[in-house]
Every structure is written in C-alpha cells, then in structure tokens.
Amino acid sequence: MRKFVLLAAAALVASAPSLAAPPRTDTLVISPSEGWAAVGCTPDQLCVEIAPSEPGCEGQACPNGAADGTDVSLQLPGGQGDPVHMLYRIAGLPSADAYARLWPKLIRFQGGILVGVQTEERAMYSGGGASATTLHLIAFVPDQLPFEVLRVPQSSSATIRACFSERHMKQRAGACHDEYSFDASLALTQASAAGWPVLRYRSKATSFPGHVSRSKDSLAARPLRQRDLVTVTDPRCSYQRLYRFTPQARTYVPDTPAPDCTDYTVP
Questions:
Q1: Where in the sequence is the domain holding 258, given as residue range(s)?
Q2: I want to staple 173 with a disulfide (CB 3.0 to 4.6 A). Which of 35, 217, 224, 239 is the partner?
Q3: Per the structure, how many domains does the chain have?
Q4: CA angle, 261 as apex, 169 and 191 as ends, to 5°?
C-alpha cells in the first residue's frame, strides 16, 4: 500500500498586516489548475496552492512541480521580497486511493495562519460503498516550521448492502441497504487560549433505517415495518466540542474527549 504524502511550503513575514489583525476566517476562491492541482486565494490575494511534487523528496530539498500524483505540495506565499519556504508533510494515509484538496477556508490570527487540507478515502463493498473526509489543520507561524495542529473527521457516507434474497427483502421491508451519514463543521469562537483562537467543532450523524450499526448483523434483528423506514439522528455522534491549543503538546485538544464514531467515519 502506497503512502500518500502532503508537503507544505509557506512564507510568512512577522510584520505582515494580515498577522496583526484579530482572528478571522477568510473564504478561499479556489481555481482548478492542471490535473487535480488548485489555487485558493482570499479577497486580499493571500493564496494557497496544492499541486503534485516530486515523489520521494524529503524536507526542504523538495522542489515543487514534479508529478506522479502521489505527493502533494501546498504552498502559501506571502510577505514582501523573496520568501523563505518552510516544508511540511502529512504521511501515512492508509489508502493509495486517497486524495487531497484544499479546505475552502483560511484562518488568520495574530500568531500566524491555519491552512486546511481535506483528505478523502473511499472503499467499495459488494452492493455498496463508503467514503470519508478528514480535515488536517496546518499551522504556519513565523520563525517555526509548519506543523499539524488538528486532525478531525469532516464528512462521510456509507451504504452497506443488507439484502441477499427475496426473504431478506421481505424482512427488510424493501430497504435493502443500511445508510450512514456524518457531517461536521469547524469555526472560530470569540475566545482564545495561549494566543491561539479557540475552535468550535460540531457534528451530526444519521442512519437509515432507524438506529442500525455496522458492528451488528442487520438481518439478525427483527423484521422491519414501514414505520421503521426513517432516517434518525445518532445523539452520541452528533456533538459539539471546543478545541483549545495546548503549547506543550503543540496541538488542539477538545474540552471533552470525542466519542468513538467509527461506524460513520471509517470507510
């Protein structure tokens, strides 16, 4: 199984006006480039680029623009004069089918910039399939190498086949798939911790028909009735957390541990 590597290059200038403003979220206008490469820019032209880079390269020796599609280069230019590029990589994604794209937002705060990369994995099943997207938040701060500060599930969906005969179709009242959906958002709050913005994470998870589970055999349950054929919200995996930056760990930590929602978030 191949590794899928993300490389990040950033140029930050400590005196840049964009870093002195209060924390804010900017929307990136994303323009596709050659292949799956893309550039996203804020209204004041702070741009992020995601593009293939040379496979097998390491650290700051990595040039941009080489090309087999298994590596990704993220470039965040900024400041005046010749920028100093810092390189970062996210390695070890579990599937060769995974791919990456820009998060269409950018967070600016007094200490730096937070850039998001969305990685998606897919899996195929007999009569079904699943996909899951993870958000990686990377911090670019002056005089430091970039580092990942948060990795959270962002969205997912799964359709699992549950009928293999006419008897099964009758038992399932014609609903021959279990369906799972998970959607989450990440946003700024008005608070800060250790000079970093506090982030609010909200998720909603649903399943159909009713409260099904990927860890249980649906055909072992009682026969379904028409009134059972509804989409329901899973209260355990529909939750809110506040994430605060912890300098000692150099990462964002939730106010309460997140529940295990792998039924929804793992393809």
A1: 5-265
A2: 224
A3: 1
A4: 140
